[in-house]
Amino acid sequence: MDFGWQPDEDVERVLAHPWSPADGWESCGRLGLLGLSVPVEHGGSGRGFLDTARVAEAFGAGCTDMGLVFSALAHLFACAMPIAEHGSARVRERVLPLLASGEWVGANAITEDVAGSDVTALRTTGRLDGDHYVLDGVKSFVSNGPVADVFVVYASTEPEFGHLGVSAFVVERGTPGLVVEPFAKGVLASCPAGEVRLVGCRVPVDHVLGVPGQGAAIFQSSMRWERTCLFAAYLGQAGRLLDRCVEHARTRRQFGRPIGANQAVSHAVAGLRSRWEAARLVLWRACWRLDRGERAAWDVAAAKLAVSEVAVDTALFTMRVLGGAGVRDAGVSADLLDAVAATTFSGTSEMQLEQMAKELGL
Questions:
Q1: Nearest by Cα to 193 from 148, 149, 143, 152
Q2: Cβ partners under 8 Å of residue 257, min gap 6
Q3: Does pLDDT of 224 surpass 50?
Q4: 156: buried, middle or exposed (CB in 10 Å: 19+, 13-18, 0-12)?
Q5: Domains located in the chain, CATH noted
Q6: Are the C-beta atoms of residues 213 and 221 closer than 8 Å to each other?
Q7: Which residues make beta-bridge pairs with 209?
Q8: 12/118: higher pLDDT
Q9: pTM higher than 0.90, yes or no?
Q10: Rounded distance between C-alpha atoms, residue 118 and residue 111, angstroms
């Protein structure tokens, strides 16, 4: 199968970059990571799914701070891309260059405590009032929320129509009635998160993405980017951890020989490597099909499932094979927690299996 992709300098530049917490976001902007898939005319690189996924994989491999990786890619796929694909001309021209450069930070506000993953159960409402919509409600777990300059907010504008009554809005930080309350978390710790409260928040009608009632479809469209290209970064993380396992198994000696000489270790590494390669090919195929304009719903769900599950198993094995060194290394512990989160956000593993079964006609 010809995926139509050739390596370029971007992957090597990202892998070679000396990542540090102090200049993380600025580095993401300089390297073009915040606008990979944003159209060129709006300040991005205009890359498709497969090209974007390959660079994101290098990002996850080269940057050990998965909180920063998640923050940057959520900014791109859950905020910038819905605006790029569905925003009005005026909103695209104003917002996208700022997001692509990193001058502005983007956030996605859809999750609610009660609704969870059910977009038909949103309690946040949008009421048309003249040439504005008035938004009221509370959004939980908004990644980048405390530092975001612009939000993509989903609200129910016609509740009687269920998912066909959900609309998506572009809301800038200074809009009266928008308040963000930060909270601390132990997973993806360096990605700021918070609760967004909307009280009589007035949004111009041209800040609606697409048309009213198209919000659920827009959200699913953004999930194509997240479930492939964001999770490519978890391929990078898992590959980085596998390389560390191999190096440790070669050099760590117990009872007069390297621990890699024990089949319990060598077979486990070989099995994880084969699963990692398989997940990578499933993800690449999903991206290839999306670049061809195909629906690829089964492939996208399978990619998200395979990558997130192998990421968890790889991180867990890394903790085990490193033993005391893994316990002392806070980075390995963080990798494990961050990998576990991957089975939950952007749709749980169970949701991906449900989607895959549906595509099979079950």
A1: 143
A2: none
A3: yes
A4: buried
A5: 9-101 (1.10.540.10), 106-213 (2.40.110.10), 217-359 (1.20.140.10)
A6: no
A7: 168
A8: 12
A9: yes
A10: 9
Residues forming a β-bridge with 172: 150
3-state secondary structure of 55: helix
Question: Hunting for tokens 């951890």 — which residue is that?
Answer: 241
Tens digits of residue pLDDT in 151-197: 999 999 999 898 899 999 999 999 999 999 999 998 999 999 999 99
Half-sphere exposure of 320 (CA within 13 A, CB side): 11
Which residue type sits at 91? V
The pair of three-digit structure tokens given for residue 10, joined into one six-digit string: 């971007």
CA distance 252 to 258: 5
User: What DSSP string runs through 319-347?
Assistant: HHHHTHHHHH-HHHHHHHHHHHHTTTTTS
Asked whether the beta carbons of 140 and 111 are under 8 A apart, the reply is yes
Of 241, 221, 200, 234, which is closest to residue 340 (Cα–Cα)?
A: 234
Q: How far is residue 339's CA from residue 170's CA, in Å, rounded to a whole number? A: 30
**CA nearest 275: which of 241, 313, 249, 240?**
313
CA-to-CA separations, 70 to 217, 262, 283, in angstroms, rounded: 23, 36, 18
Q: Answer yes or no: are the C-beta atoms of 132 and 141 closer than 8 Å.
A: no
Which one is catalytic: 57, 112, 195, 226?
226
Instruction: At 206, list the tokens.
Output: 């041209």
Is 226 part of the annotated catalytic residue set? yes
Rounded-to-integer distance, Cα 123 and Cα 166, Å: 10
Specify the DSSP class assigned to residue 164: G
Token pair recorded at residue 279: 């997940």
How many CB atoms are located within 10 Å of the residue 258 CB?
Answer: 15
Given the DSSP bridges, would you call strands 150-156 and 106-109 parallel, antiparallel or unpaired?
A: parallel
Write the Ramachandran bin of 213: left for phi over 0, alpha for psi from -120 to 50, otherwise beta. Answer: left
What are the strands, taking DSSP E only, across 173-297? 178-183, 193-204, 208-209, 253-254, 257-258
Q: Which residue type sits at 290?
A: L
Give the burial class of 319: count Cβ atoms within 10 A of its Cβ; 0-12 exposed, 13-18 middle, 19 or more buried. Answer: middle
